Amino acid sequence: MEPSKVKKWASRKRPHVEHMLDRSEMSLPIPDEIEKLFNKRFTFQKLADQPWCLAEVGKVSTKESERLQALKESLNDVKNQLSDKELEKWHEHTAFTNRAGKVIPVVRSTMNAELCTQAWCKFHEILCTFPLLPFEALQDGELNSVHLCEAPGAFIASLNHYLKSHRIPCDWNWIANTLNPYHEGNDTGMMIMDDRLIAATLPWWYFGPDNTGDIMAHDCLQGLKELTQNVTVHLVTADGSFDCQDNPGEQEALVSPLHYCETIAALMLLGPKGSFVLKMFTLFERCSVCLLYLLNCCFREVSVFKPGTSKSGNSEVYVVCLEYKGKDAVGRYLDQLGMSFGPDVVQKSDLVRTAVPESFLKQLEECCFFFHKCQTDTIRENLRLFGKMGTEEVKAMEEKRDCAADFYLRQFQLRRLAREDWLVKRSQAGWSLAGRLSAHKKKKLHSGSYNDRMDLAGLAWQERMRKSPLGPEVDQHCTATREANCTLRDSQGGTDCQSWYILEGRRLSRLVSSPFCDVELQRIMEEAVLGCGAARGTVALPCDSCSVYSEELVLSELAALMAEQRPGRFCDHRSQPVDCLVMMRLQQFPTMKLINGFQLRYWKATSLLPTRCTVLHDGELSYQQYLLDAVLHAIEDCRDGGALILPILSSFTRFTAGLLFVLQHCFRALDFVCPTSSDALGTLAVLLCAGFRRPPADVTAFLARLSERVRQLQDCEPDRPLQVLQFVPMELLLRGNLPRFLDVLNTAILKQRLHLLTQSTT
Hints:
Elements: H1 3-13, H2 17-20, H3 32-37, E1 40-43, H4 66-79, H5 87-97, H6 103-111, H7 118-129, H8 135-140, E2 142-148, H9 154-165, E3 171-177, E4 205-206, H10 218-227, E5 233-238, H11 251-269, E6 270-280, H12 286-298, E7 299-306, E8 317-324, H13 327-330, H14 332-339, H15 345-348, H16 358-385, H17 391-411, H18 433-436, H19 450-457, H20 461-467, H21 471-475, E9 503-506, H22 519-531, H23 551-565, E10 578-582, E11 594-595, E12 598-602, H24 621-637, E13 643-648, H25 654-666, E14 667-673, E15 685-692, H26 697-713, E16 722-726, H27 730-733, H28 738-761
Protein name: Cap-specific mRNA (nucleoside-2'-O-)-methyltransferase 2
InterPro entries: Adrift-typ_MeTrfase, mRNA_Cap_2O-Ribose_MeTrfase, RNA_MeTrfase_FtsJ_dom, SAM-dependent_MTases_sf
Pfam families: FtsJ (PF01728)
C-alpha cells in the first residue's frame, strides 16, 4: 500500500472524538451532560519559548505544591462522608447512578466482545480518542505491544477487537505481564485472580525468573528487555493498582512505587515514536508531579484522560503519552532510574526530588482542579440521592443511562466481531479458575462500612472470623461423612508427560494464595496458625463433639469406592483380597495386614514427614520431598487393580496439585476422607485411591528426576533460594474435575483446622 493511502486509511481507522460525532445518526438526543462525560481530558501545552527538559541530577526541590495539597485535603473531606456507608448498598446505589452503567452489557451483547469488562470499554475509548497506534507501525504492517499489570487481559482483548473489527492489516504481536494468579506467595490484595484469558493464552504471559510476575522486581524488567530486544515496541500499557480500600485517603502515595516501575519499564521497552498508557489516580503528591513532568519531557504529547466508562466518583485517570522521543531524551536519568528500580524507587530516585518549572506546575494544578471538581461533584450528587430517589428521578436516570450506551456505540464506532476472530476462539469451559471453583469463591472480601472494617481490624482473628460469612461454617462440628459428588473418576487421556517441565522460582516464604482454595479461608488460616503459636509447636486441644474417621471407617469408605469400580466383585467373599498400599503407619491403623477385604502393606518413608502444619502448609520443601517420594514409590510398588491410602496435609500448591494429577491418571477413582485426626495442626485428611493402572515408564523416570532436583534445591545458595513450583503445565491442572476436587479437599481441611484451633482458644 502506498504511503499516502496508508496515511489516509490510518486517519480514517483511528478517528478522534471531535471528528466522529454525527447527531443525525443518534437514536436518542444527546444531553450536554453525556457529551461531557466522555470528554474529561486535559492535554499539557508545551510552550516553544519555555521548553520542558530534565534538569541535571542534583538540582533538587522538596517543596510541595500548597494548592495541590489543599485539593487533596478537600477531596478527602468529601470522601470521609462515605465512611459510615455500608459498602454493598453504596456500590449498588453508585452503580445505578453511573451514567455509563449500561455500556458494558450493551457492548457485550451487541458487539460480541471478548472478555467485555469495564477495562475493555475504557481502553476502547482511549483507542478511539487518541492516535495511540503509531503511523509507522501501521505503515510497516507490524504492531508490537507490551501490557504490564494486565490481568485479567481486557486491554488485550479490546485491542484485538479494535484491530480485527476495523480490519487493520497488521501483524500484531503482544506479550503481557501481571502478578501470577497461580503463584502461592502472591498476596491476593495485590492482584486480580481472574484468569479467564490467562489460562488459555499462557505462552504470551511473562512472569519473570522468579515466577511471581512482579514488575517491581529488577529481574522481571531485565527479562522483558531481553524478550523484546529484537523488535520495536510500539505500545506499552500499564493498568496496575492494588486494593487500598482500608486506606483510601493515601491511595496515590501507596501506589506510586508501582507507577514509577511501570513508567521506567515503558521508557526502557518502547521504541521511538511509541505510545504509553499509564493508569494513575490523584496527582497531588510530589512523586506524581515529578512523574508527570518526566513523561512530558519524554513524549511529544501527554494527556490526562478520564474515560466515560470509568466510574465518575473514583480517582482513576489514564495518562496517555504519544510519540516517545527515545531513550536519549531521558539521558542519564534512565540509568539512574534503572539503578533505583524496585519497591523503594520513590525513596531512592533523585527524580522525585528534581525541580520542575512553574509553567508545568501551573498546568498540572489546573488539570488536578478539573478532575477534582468532576469527582467531588459526582460524590456529592450520590450522597444527595442515596436512599432518596423518587420515581421521576429513577426514570430520568434510566434515560441518561440508555443515552450514554447509545452514544458510546456510535461515538466510538464499535463493530461486531466474529467469534473466530477472538483471541480464544473456542470455549475453554473448565480451564479457568473463574468458572471452576465453588460458590464461596465469590464472597466479597469487603463488606460493611469503612468504619465497620476498621473496628473489625482491631479484633482478634477468632472474633473476626466469627463475624465473617465463614463463621457459621467453621463453627459446625464435623461428622465422619464423605463429601458427596466429589470423586475423581477415570481421567480423559493417558499419562503423557511429554509436555511436563520443571518450573523453578523464588522459594516460598509464606503461602497466602492458591488457585485451588478460597483465598479468605487461607488468609484467616495464616492468622490462626501464627496466632496460636503453631510455629513454636503449641498443641491445640481436640474437639469432643467432632467425629473422627476410625480405621474401620476409612477402609469402609475405600471398600465402597472399590465396589463402584468393580460392581458385584469386590464384595464377593470368594474373591481375592485387594492389595492396598498404606503410605505410612497411621496411629489408628492396626498392625494386622488382612482386614475388610484388603491385604494391607505399609511403606516406611525414606524422607522425614513434617508432623506439624506451618504457614507454608504443603509448600514446605521437606513435605514436598516426602509426598513426591510417596507418590513415586506408590506407582512403582502398587499392583494392578490395587488401592492406595495416602495421608495428605493439603493441596494448595501447584506442586502438590501436580502429584494428585499423577495419581488421577494412575487410578480409576480418587476420593478423600476428613478428619482422620483431632490434631488441629496435624494431618487431617487421607486420600483414597482405587483401581491402580500402571503408568508408562517415562512418567516414573520424570518423577525420579524431579525428586533428585528437589533434593538439590534444598541445599542451594542461601542468597538465592529456589524451589520447584510446578511440573505439570497449568493448562492441564485446570482441566476437568481436578480443580473442583482440590477445592473441596482444601476447604474441608481448612474448615476443620480452623474449627479445632477456634475450639482450643475459646
